[in-house]
Amino acid sequence: MTDLSDTRVRRLRRTVRRYRARTQGFLGVARLLLSAFLGRVDEVWIGDSHAVHMNSPTMVTALRRLPDGRWVWHVGPRVMYSIAREGLPVAALRVLRLASRTRRARDIVWAFSFGEIDVRCHLVPRMSDPEAALEFVPLYLERLRRAATAAGARRALVLIPPPESDVYPEQIGFPVVGSLAERIEASHALRDAMVRAAKDLPTDGASVHLIDITEEFSDERGAMREDLTYDGLHANDIGRGVTRAHVVEILEATADD
């Protein structure tokens, strides 16, 4: 009898959590679109945990506004490869299309962050043939370019995944594959592939600009600098400042595009 009661309690808690997350999601989207219709949205970051922590020290809700007017939207630990294959989540694409109807849609900057999990968990075993392993990269960037174009934007930012960490604890469901040196090599190959692919993107629609923090975030081995993170992987205030400087530089350089 006790086991049955415990099971019912756990199910009820899961149901409540799902309902709460869904409700928070709807409210977040409503606030974002209302702000966009009022012309009060300048920048929206979408992606993995780095999309959040490159902008904020906390991850409270999936979609929220930061004090300076930026928005962050955590869509979960999705990998770059799946975005290339399937595109952004359908819900996110719908929001981007709705945002295209707002009066300042062209001026909203959409920033995307995916790929660190690709390097940490998947790329190393495939790097015997780097060209085949990274053939998804051009399609990944093109998917994001199309998404930003569908949102009516003229600029999109894409974060090159930050360096690999050798101190971040391994997570259930996301096993670390390969030595640190092998993952660093894969990370650099991914970075180079993104730089090449970005140059070959179509010139119509939104322009795509890469945020490359690799050098500043790397220690002498090429691994993540611990002084720029709070947990060995995600940026702290200093790391966020470094990233923000790159973003501001890109936005200022492309202000008249």
Task: Based on Cα principal axes, name the global outline.
Answer: globular
Whole-number average pLDDT?
92
CATH architecture assignment:
3-Layer(aba) Sandwich
Query: Measured on Cα atoms, how large is the radius of gyration?
Result: 19 Å
Distance between the termini: 68 Å
- Stretches where pLDDT falls below 50 for ≥5 residues? none
- The topology string of helices and strands comes to HEHEEHHEHHHEHEHH
Q: Note the quaternary state here.
A: single chain
> Which strand-content bin applies to the residues?
5-15%
Number of domains: 1
* CATH homologous superfamily (4th level) name: SGNH hydrolase
Described by strand count, sense and barrel closure, the largest sheet is: 6 strands, mixed
- Number of helices, where a helix is a run of at least 4 consecutive DSSP H or I residues: 10
Record field, number of beta strands: 6
User: Within the CATH hierarchy, at the fold level, what is the topology?
Assistant: Rossmann fold
Question: Can you put this structure into words, describing what you see?
Answer:
This protein is of the alpha/beta class and 257 residues long. It has a single domain, classed as 3-Layer(aba) Sandwich (Rossmann fold). Helices cover 49% and strands 11% of the residues. The chain has ten helices and six strands, in the order αβαββααβαααβαβαα. Strands 2-3-1-4-5-6 form a six-stranded mixed sheet, with helices on both faces. α5 packs across α8. The longest helix is centred in the first third of the chain and has 36 residues. It is globular. The model has no long low-confidence stretch (mean pLDDT 92).
